[in-house]
Amino acid sequence: ATVERVAAARQAALQAPALPAALAAAYQKPVTLEFREAPLRQVFEALARSSAINFVFDKDVRGDARVTVFLRNVSLDEALRVILATQQLDRKLLNDTTVLVYPNTPAKQREHQELVTRSLYLANADVKQALTLVRMMTKTRDVHAEERLNALVVRDTPEVVRQIERLLATIDLPEPEVTLAVEVMEVASDQVQNLGIDWPATVNIGLPSPATVMGLSGDGVRASIANPGFVASLRASTGSTNLLANPTIRVRNREKAKVQIGNKLPVFSSTSTPSNGSTTTTASVGSLAYNLGTRLTTTALRLRDGETQVLAGLINDEDRRTAKGLPGLATAPFVGRLFGVTGDNRSKTEIVMLITPRIVRPLLPPSAAEATLASGTDAMPGSPSLRLRSGGTVAVPLATGAGAPAAVTSTPLPDASAPSDGTGALR
Hints:
Radius of gyration: 46 Å
Shape: rod-shaped
Helix content: 10-25%
Strand content: 25-35%
Order of helices and strands: HHEHEEHEEHEHEEHEEEEEEEEEEHEE
Oligomer: single chain
């Protein structure tokens, strides 16, 4: 539910606010401007007469500033952006047909530029990293990270806020995930060999009557009746493969997955506190010493989806030899096997792990067009581009002589040495 809510809020925020219908139609009207050293107010008067748009000037706008511009077959909106940019001005919409023109200075921007506050929720990205990215890329200062909601609260111009929203949309992507099918097997190779005569552990000597007599046994002297016997042992066996565990774990990208197989051995202890609370005694129950065997390996792999990798070589080798029999006789040379039995136990175990990754959710990065964002200029982050649409032409002289008159004509561009009354034309 959180992901759907974030996606809906982001989609609504990405939609730029629509202009009023009357103003939008006037902005798309094609115009041709030809002015050389014309007063700024005269240029805007011509634009107002041709578009029915009212222009209001801030008191600090110099109406006698000279404008030299030649625009052919461009929209009114593009013509306004060119004139405002070359004269270091900016605009603000007052109503459906009125536009305020003011100097593009930090003081005037703070005075006229309206700010918006918006909460931007993140579904996957870390809010602290997103905060650092926003501050570095957009130069905005009024931004707060709400860690409890994993959201950013931004206060800036609508253009900058929309730019931040589009930037976050390119990085707020779900983490790729993979499932690991792990098989842990123990391959045992045992060789057990018992040779000799296994005499009974107890030899009783007595009378066949219910009377109690003294007997000789491996456990001491006791009273009983038993039949003696012995067993000849000649046996050999080998081991097999045992599947210890077969877990399937799911892990995110760049995270570690851990599988622990074994037993936990408790050590019991008791703690007593006297009634006065002055002394605390801790005592362990018994003296315990565990023999723990651990085999550990660490590796880094890069596998394809569905590819199985075998990890082996964790070997434990044990060799045990036991002997038992009649005291004194079992150790006699040549005939010792007749009075005892020896056992050889060789055990070799190897841990083998089979790992098979399965991609559950791959990384779906945005396209190159979606990942490329217009960021405005360094002085005005988030400002629209000054690039004109195809079909329009513009010629703005970089510099003219002070007070040098010029002629106004259509094509080609006028000669700077031609006489002029400082007026122009708009078609």
